[in-house]
Queue: 3 jobs
Job 1
Amino acid sequence: MAGPAALVERNLVIYRHTWYLLLAEVFEPVLYLVSMGLGIGALVGHVPGLGDPSVGYVDFVAPALLATAAMNGAMNETTFNIYGKLRMLRTYDSILATPLTVRDVALGEVAWALLRGTAVTVVFGAAVAAFGLVHSLWALLILPGALLVAFAFAAAGLAVVTYIRSWQDFQLVQLVMLPMFLFATTFYPLGVYARPVQIGVECLPLYQSIELIRQPSLGVVDAGVGWAALYLLLLGCASLALALRRLERTLLP
């Protein structure tokens, strides 16, 4: 990890004076938590159809927003920021003039994005705890779950950015991310959909991310949590392999 670690160290040096920008990534889910979880939650009360009638709406929404924060923190780093380095600043041309390889670049950027996604999750998780929304010791699994979510989306973002041709193409990324955020059971349970739609939703990576975070936070650890972890691990590994192959084609003469 010496090579990737050097790239992570470089990013730490660059971003140490702009760490406060991470707060912007935390601010959005906190707004959703207050407006949707606490605001609408006061009207909704308990969430029907979960098998546990004691689950309040804010307890249901908070873990989903936490998973979303991990996703966005990692995905933003490996899409917007890396596009600038790759296409505009040509940062990697000079990096590859050193002993670092394309593999080091890929692993280092994913590791850095994972750190950013985890940092966002920790800060937002502290806000969730401050609202008194942690009720089970199983919630300790949230942090490793968030690490896995961040890894999967960091690797996916790195693969996606190799296909981006211009800044306008990021609209296509948002065309995928926004509907996934709205429909992946962030604000209501899977049971509201007809079964054919449920199957499609269950295939979404954000849905599996939410399940990985939500179930332990509600005190439930079953086979579904293991399946979600396996899904995200496979997604991350496959995306990283694709990203590495694409970066080699782009960066090597």
Job 2
Amino acid sequence: MPADAEDGERIQDELRTRLIIPADRAGPPATVTGLDISYAVGSRHAVAAAVTIGVGDLRGREVAVAEGDISFPYVPGLLAFRELPLLLEALGRLETPPEVLVCDGYGIAHPRRFGLASHLGVLLDLPSFGVAKNDFIGTHDEPGERRGEWSALEDGGELLGRAVRTQTGVKPVFVSVGHRISLADATDLAIALSPHFRIPEPTRQADIISREILRDGRHSLD
């Protein structure tokens, strides 16, 4: 854990040198594990959930959770240090190791090109990508209105990801690679995992489950 924000930025810069971002497609995995974390209002308490979903049938395979207090303060651009301990604990409780990780957040679409999805991917050496509800950095044209259409997310001419329409007529999400996955594959997975809702099913379920546990200690995989 970094001592302060400056130390956190130094760690990000160091770990970023390990990033692997392939240009070529690798094809869809059998499963994707989604991650999200929910915070109790007015306290440092939080719940992280890891939910593995089948890519072909969108059926839930496994759920693991971790609960505890957050120690690192909220600092824009350093969210990973706040959430990593509980997310890693939840992932460590899965019986079947994940194939690909999807985070409710950013990969290289980040001021230092090292968001939560990149951080997790590098630490675990797993393919990872982020699907965020809002853009954090860069500019984009509005994608077409139909499901599956997208536009480039760029910053100073550098391609950081895509604004992707996962549902026709609904606001786009922002897809960026984290580690060991191409942008084309990350985009395809974001769309395939979002058959009915704007947010991909693995992270949607992780959000639901983490909120349920905060509320009443129970969870289910819908």
Job 3
Amino acid sequence: MIQMLYISSATEPMSTDDLLGLLGECRENNAAAGITGMLLYGNATFLQVLEGEESVVDTLFERIRRDPRHTNVEVLHRKTIERRQYSDWSMGFKRVSAKELAQIEGLRDFDEQNFNQAYLTEHGSIVLSLMDHFRKERSKSIGHSELGLDEEDPLINLLHRIIRSAVRVLAVLMVITIAWGVVDVVNVLLYKVLAPSFEELRARDIIVTFGAFLAVLIAIEIFLNITLYLRDDVVPIKLVIATALMAIARKVIIFDFEKIEPLYVLATAAVVLALGIVYWLMDEKTTWSGRRH
């Protein structure tokens, strides 16, 4: 598998519709060929990285090189890779602007006018910084951004801020709950285990002790899930499923089978099975994706 980075100049400035049409073609062709990568455009200059099997990338690049919409196609680097850097999209895209360039760490003096073939060809480190920056930004944007604060609608941004504040309040309350649970564990240990004599200790007391410990552990896991909603770089679905599985498993440990109904046990088993299948499917998808790359 190889990664190829090339630069070229547009034969004429590209409009938004032109870029959308080009991007649609790229994504359709790349998805069919198993190609991943990213395309940057600005100041009538294309900067594109392609990843995939060597023969497939070479074939695609030859077709790209002959495209009349650009000229002076020049390969900046071509290297063998073991893993894809742009594995999450068939073709990421960013239209480079002066405002965004000004926000890139270490490129304060680099502006939109410098985004041209002559300058970038001579400054390979800047090219790598640009690709790395926009790759990371793109990764964040396709991640867990349901509560993002950069929406175009100011009302949506306000609502997201309110929800984020509510999440922080929930996190604080959960910490209080955890502390309360620890106090309960200490209380149970003192009055159920340490205070009675060994002869008076019953199985029910041990179960109550386990239950107090497990309640605190489950509360900690819920706290971790709550705080994930304040992050933009995490998709917490798999972790939530794993937390649900662990919580139910711990609940099963302290089941009092003399008091619960058989139907309750069957329902719990069905939930565990369903969550287990979903978790397995997600893990298989991740493993398969890793093998492809």
